[in-house]
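Tokens in:
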């Protein structure tokens, strides 16, 4: 391979990046975080380990970014239906039931790995938790600005916990994957009343 070809190959295009992230998610589903290796990612994606380390620094960063990339939609700014109920429903409907089931299984596995891995925890906070919290804050702030909910409602601080809790508890308590129907009903029955927001 010529030097020019090597240089060209080492630049990662958005399409190539998406391919790499999809391969990482496939490997995660197959073997879990602990058994996933950079060697396996390199082999699956026909990449060099050096390129992977240069681009992502390590496994934790690569996995966190792959999971974030795999989430539908990147910003609540793109979702503004004019009501809090509409916004929460629209955010929920970005994933179909099949995607929710896959994501639920993936997140259960990663939740275990996070506890024993400070690097993964740090990467998850930076690339998943903080962006998700920021997204919820933007949705809630718009609802406050519209006069739908009061800025001093104490339930506002717990809204992300309610949403994430419903997603996680569905499998643990009901032994079923989360679905659009379940989450939309939960939003109307639990989240909106807690926030003092209209449910219709």
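Residues out:
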């Amino acid at each position: 391979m010529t030097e020019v070809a090597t240089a060209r190959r080492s630049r990662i295009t958005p399409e190539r990046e998406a391919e790499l992230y999809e391969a990482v998610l496939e490997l995660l589903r197959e073997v879990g975080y602990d058994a996933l290796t950079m060697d396996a990612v390199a082999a699956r994606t026909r990449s060099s380990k050096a390129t992977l380390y240069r681009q992502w620094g390590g496994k934790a960063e690569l996995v966190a970014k792959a999971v974030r990339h795999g989430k539908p939609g990147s910003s609540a700014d793109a979702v503004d239906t004019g009501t809090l109920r509409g916004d929460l429903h629209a955010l929920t409907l970005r994933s179909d039931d099949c995607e929710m089931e896959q994501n639920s299984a993936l997140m259960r596995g990663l939740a275990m790995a996070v506890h024993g891995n400070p690097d993964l925890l740090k990467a998850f906070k930076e690339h998943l938790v903080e962006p998700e919290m920021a997204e919820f804050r933007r949705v809630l702030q718009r609802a406050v600005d519209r006069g739908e909910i009061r800025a001093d409602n104490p339930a506002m601080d717990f809204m992300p916990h309610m949403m994430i809790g419903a997603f996680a508890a569905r499998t643990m308590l009901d032994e079923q994957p989360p679905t659009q129907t379940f989450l939309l009903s939960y939003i109307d029955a639990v989240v909106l009343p807690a926030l003092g927001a209209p449910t219709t």
